[in-house]
Amino acid sequence: MHVTLSVNGTEHALDIDPRTTLLDALRDHLDLTGTKKGCDHGQCGACTILLDGKRINSCLTLAVMHEGDAITTVEGLSTPDALSPLQAAFVAHDGYQCGYCTPGQICSATGMLEEIAAGWPSHVTDDLEADPALTREEISERMSGNLCRCSAYPNIVDAIAEVGGAAK
Q1: φ and ψ at 106, to 5 degrees?
Q2: Any residues with CB less than 8 A from the CB of 143 and at least 6 apart, and which?
Q3: Fold of 2-73
Q4: In the chain, which residues fall in CATH 1.10.150.120?
Q5: Helix (H) and strand (E) counts for the chain?
Q6: What are phi and psi of 110, to 5 degrees?
Q7: pLDDT band for position 165 (50/70/90)?
Q8: Which InterPro entries match (predicted)?
Q9: What local confidence, expressed as pLDDT, does residue 124 receive?
Q10: Which of 125, 137, 151, 159 could form a cystine bridge with 95, CB 3.0-4.6 A?
Q11: Mean of pLDDT values over 40-46
């Protein structure tokens, strides 16, 4: 099947099997290997990308469903010469150990901060206007779909808190 995907601001024409996941299209057809295949069941978050600015697990959706959507992978968040604020914070706070989950963590955190900026409600704090501080508990809850087998969670939360202006 022919599909054109807009990935990191560039159009890519692909001829793929209609059963190809977006994750496999990114990795195997576009050589964008920053997005990782972890569980391939939507349980770990290693494959998190941004689709029209919202975070999704790319292993759970088919590539042919996303013609016309804006797809952003970790490669699209920065350039080799200039890290995104979250990437820089992950480095500064040692928010990774093996690094396998890091691209998904960074994409998810980017999407999470956009959700907060857009006023999306919280499961932890019902009214962000009453308590605008992004707490560690809030960050942990909103990032709960992204697992880190090395357990670098405190450092990941520190990095997100720095960029999100959270109260520690």
Answers
A1: -70, -45
A2: 105, 108, 109, 112, 156, 157, 160
A3: Ubiquitin-like (UB roll) (3.10.20)
A4: 85-164
A5: 5, 5
A6: -60, -45
A7: confident
A8: 2Fe-2S-bd, 2Fe-2S-bd_dom_sf, 2Fe-2S_ferredoxin-like_sf, 2Fe-2S_ferredoxin-type, 2Fe2S_fd_BS, Aldehyde_Oxdr_Iron-Sulfur, Beta-grasp_dom_sf
A9: 58
A10: 159
A11: 97
Tokens of 17: 């099997």
Q: What share of the chain is helix, strand, coil (3-state, %, to 5)?
A: 35, 15, 45
Q: Residues of CATH 3.10.20.30 domain(s) within the chain?
A: 2-73
pLDDT at 14: 98
Q: What angle do CA 33, 46, 168 make, to 5 degrees?
A: 125
Which token pair is 65? 């469903």
Does the pTM exceed 0.85?
Answer: yes
**Residue 80's pLDDT is what?**
83
- For residue 62, the model assigns a pLDDT of 98
Please state which CATH class domain 85-164 belongs to: mainly alpha
At residue 66, does pLDDT exceed 60?
A: yes
